[in-house]
Amino acid sequence: MRQNLYITQILNKKTVKKISFINVFIQTSIIILITKRLPMKKQTYIIIIFFFINLIQAQKNSQDYFTLKGVLKNNYKGYLYVSYADKKDSCLLENNKFSFKGHISGNMTNVFFWLKGKTCVMKKEFFIENKNIKINLAFYDEIQDRDTTVFFHTTSIVGTKTALIQDDYERFAASNLYAKDQHQKLYRKLNTMAVKTQKIIMWVI
Fold first, then answer.
1. Which of 5, 116, 178, 190 has the highest local Cβ count within 10 Å?
2. Is domain 66-160 in CATH 2.60.40, yes or no?
3. Where in the chain is the domain with CATH 2.60.40?
4. Contact 62/174 with Cβ under 8 angstroms?
5. pLDDT in tens, 22-45
């Protein structure tokens, strides 16, 4: 638990925007060394992947706001609520369409969709960046302990590098789900991603 907290603290450093390639290499190496001692869990992989994304994004100038437009595939009438980075917003659905606009101080943050008066859960984590983002969203109800829980899930995401990298990793993980050397393959995949990311950072700098 403490090791996961330490990784999170590295991700939240305020000096990311001024980071040099040497610091990138050192911090990436630290994280890889730490994760060698941890169980090879999906959560750890995702943390590392998002760390790489943050390093790339920190070197580039980008717009300081995001737009989030999409379609809720369910035939639901009413307001759709969203929470991100301690902020909340709502949008009245029109023809199943919704639109949000806002700002995040970091390079990315996770988003939580919900409906008023209902217990809601994100089936898969969804991250936004200060970009123009388009998504298709859906939900389904499931009875748990006599209570109904609404599970939200994104069926498509366009506009974020986070989604591309996350999808690439998850496709690879799914294709090796029953491999005998699953953990080794996943680790090698992350290591390859780290090397590519470092090359991109060198080019950007």
1. 190
2. yes
3. 66-160
4. no
5. 444 444 544 544 444 445 455 455
Picking from 6, 8, 21, 48, the residue whose alpha carbon sits closest to that of residue 204 is 21
Q: How many residues does the chain have?
A: 205
- What Å distances lie between residue 67 and 32, 42, 82, 126, 174, CA to CA? 34, 29, 13, 14, 31
Could you give the CA distance from residue 196 to residue 121 in angstroms, rounded to a whole number? 34
Question: What tokens were used for 102?
Answer: 């806002």
Type of residue numbered 34: I
pLDDT at residue 37, rounded to an integer: 46
Q: Coil, strand, or helix at residue 134?
A: strand
Task: Enter the pTM of the model.
Answer: 0.65
Q: Is residue 32 classed exposed, middle or buried when 0-12, 13-18 and 19+ CB atoms within 10 A define those classes?
A: middle
- φ/ψ of 65, rounded to 5, equals -150, 165
Strands (E), 73-158: 79-84, 87-92, 97-102, 109-114, 119-122, 126-128, 132-144, 147-158
Residue 135 and residue 157 in contact, taking contact as beta carbons nearer than 8 Å:
yes
